[in-house]
Amino acid sequence: MGKFRFLILFGVFSNDSIAQNAILGDPLEPVPSKVTGVIDGQPPSDAIILFDGSNMDSWEHVRSGEPSMWAIKDGVLTVNNGTGTLVSKQSFSDIQMHIEWRPNSEIVGSGQSRGNSGIFMQSLFEIQMLDSWNNPTYVNGQAGSVYHQYPPLVNASNPPGEWQTYDLVFKAPRYTRKGQLEKPAFITLFHNGVLVLDHVEVLGSTFSKVPEYRAICEPYEIAEIRDCSGDLPLLLQDHGQVVSFRNIWLREL
Ligand code: MG
After folding, report:
1. CATH number of domain containing 182
2. Distance CA 128, CA 151 (A)
3. I need a surface site. Which of 34, 127, 199, 231 has the fewest CB within 10 A?
């Protein structure tokens, strides 16, 4: 009899789902809200659309606040070299983001001067875009890197002239009321569907002399002292090369 009871107990506790229910119960709330996922390339139903091919209503020139001078043709946005980096009109904290980008098919330059752009989380932390198809450079500066901090796990680049996707999760840093860093930022990135950054801990803002966190700071290219402890806009970089974009959306987390 004793042996029989042992077998029953072992059976119960070796079953993961039953054991989990015993710990968590069967909660009825919070009920996850309904969201339609990506269908035929269309964004999720709760996404904020930052570029759908039709206009630049969500972006402006970073320093002047003037309208973007980048080109839109056939639903594709292309850097108009030298006209300046763009800033989103809206500010964000934690996000899931999707952006499609394409280095020019004509190869001009090499290393960091070939198909360079980038998307800056909170105007502070650059996720690098670069034509990294047979284009050696320092590894934490190639496509899929947190610029000058983390190389991608693999090089998932497509050839120049082909569209590429970034799907990312950004968790913003948190500060105490006194402006002390409480929790750093984290980034997870899929490049063309391949995991290249696996919840990496961002070391600080990209273009300070050394990566650092400051609750009061001067974001890259914004050139103004800001409260950097809350929501901040995104930047889309004009690095002087021809890079195109389409289908930019995000979800606030
Ligand atoms: Mg860049």
Report:
1. 2.60.120.560
2. 10
3. 34
Model confidence over 95-118: pLDDT tens digits? 999 999 999 999 999 999 999 999
Question: Does residue 35 fall inside a structural domain?
Answer: no
- Report how far ligand 1's centroid is from the alpha carbon of 73 (Å): 23
Ligand 1: centre distance to CA 145 (Å): 10
Per residue in 131-172, pLDDT (tens digit) is 999 999 999 999 999 999 999 999 999 999 999 999 999 999
Q: Ligand 1 centre from 13 Cα, in Å?
A: 52
Residues within 5 Å of ion ligand 1 by Cβ?
116, 118, 128, 237
In a domain, 124, yes or no: yes
> Are 85 and 218 within 8 A, CB to CB?
no
The number of domains in the chain is 1
In angstroms, what is the span from residue 230 Cα to ligand 1's centroid?
24
- Number of Cβ within a 10 Å radius of residue 38: 14
Q: Report the alpha-carbon distance of residue 131 to residue 114 in Å, rounded.
A: 6
Joined together, the tokens standing for residue 55 give 């206009």
Spacing, Cα 4 to ligand 1 middle (Å): 66
Spacing, Cα 167 to ligand 1 middle (Å): 17
Q: Is residue 137 part of a domain?
A: yes
CA of 136 from ligand 1 middle (Å) equals: 15
Greatest Cα-to-Cα distance within the chain, rounded to the nearest angstrom: 83
Which range marks the domain in which residue 167 is found? 48-252
